[in-house]
Amino acid sequence: MTEAIKSKGTGLLGLMWMLGALVPAQAQSTTEVVLHNFAPTTGAYPVVGVIGDSAGNLYGTATVGGTSGQGVVYKLDSAGQYSVLFNFTGGADGGQPYAGVIGDSAGNLYGTTSAGGAANAGVVYKLDRSGQETVLYSFTGGADGFEPLAGLIRDPAGNLYGTATFHGTPCPPVVEGQPPSCGVAFRLDAAGNYTVLYSFTGGADGGIPYSGVICDSAGNLYGTTYAGGTGNVGVVYRLDASGQETVLCSFDGYDGALPFAGVTRNAAGNLYGTTAGGGGAYGDGQGVVYKLDPAGNIAVLYSFPGGADGGDPFAGVIRDAKGNLYGTTYYGGTDNRGVLFELKPQ
Predict the structure, then answer these.
(1) How far apart are CA 192 and CA 110, in angstroms?
(2) Which residues pair with 126 in a beta bridge?
(3) How far lies 174's CA from each of 2, 141, 171, 232, 242, in Å?
(4) Does residue 95 contact residue 113 with C-beta atoms inside 8 Å?
């Protein structure tokens, strides 16, 4: 596996990287062109970004809408023509895709849905070039996981890797009226064999992985959990090829808390990410951007106070060749509706 097969569902952030690398931020002059207006009948409320192919076509998902109201996979061709490749029904085929898609060299698309499937616990699916869906795996909602919210990565052998946000085993019993916790990291091989690589306990090892995973050339996977850890505010973890977990960082609030997003990795092995909360002098800030080196030392690169400079970064960051980081915050800014930010290495 190589870092080239990462998929973070951050089409907008990818565009930010290109713009930031080409011209200084203060010199940018851009014009928006609306390529498509979403509507309930053809897909609505797209949560994630898009991927593109060499022909200039864009592919993505809308969480709801479509013929059954359960979301769609769509294509926007290079001429601006929008088409629905697949309408989810919410039944055995899946429903409500919060994650985006990844592609292979044959033009197939792969993704997850948070609902639907045999147990209404979500599916892993494949769409061929004609829009024919194949459910590669249907979650049971038990030891194999429940409600995958993140996308997938794929290695050269055709294996898919991802996370299911909740459940797994061992895991505390489900409390009525509350969602199951814990979560799993999984592999689905090219033959359709599903393997739980690691089942989070919700304790010191972490729990509730909202984000997916990335990988390195040695086959290690890296990700975050929203909860768990020694402070119960999330961890950064590594899984080796055998599924052995190492907690690289357990957040304590001062260095960040509640990471929704995953991590990105540079050639030196440093990991970069965000937390939606924590930071500040008393650990009660509005989130941080952090760096975690291979020795496990965490550095808060920036702590958001929640004012004009932004707050609550739910999404992750990307990094350009100069070491600049780019991302967004959900709140803050002059109108308290979020900001798009750049962090320079110094």
Answers:
(1) 13
(2) 110, 134
(3) 37, 11, 8, 18, 28
(4) yes
What are the strands, taking DSSP E only, across 72-220?
72-76, 82-87, 102-103, 109-113, 123-127, 133-138, 153-154, 160-164, 184-188, 194-199, 214-215
Cα–Cα distance measured from residue 333 to residue 245, given in angstroms and rounded to the nearest whole number: 38
Distances (CA, A) of 261 to 101, 143, 151: 17, 24, 12
DSSP 8-class letter at 40: G
Q: In the sheet that 51-52 helps form, which strands lie side by side, from edge to edge? A: 51-52, 58-62, 72-76, 82-87
* pLDDT tens digits, one per residue of 182-213: 999 999 999 999 999 999 999 999 999 999 99
CA distance 289 to 246: 21
Residue 110: both structure tokens together:
């792969």
Using DSSP's 3-state secondary structure scheme, residue 264 falls into strand
Q: Does the pLDDT at position 109 exceed 70?
A: yes
- Tokens linked to 222: 């890296």
Q: Which of 113, 109, 13, 118 lies closest to 66 in space, CA to CA?
A: 113
172 upstream amide cis, omega within 30 of 0: no
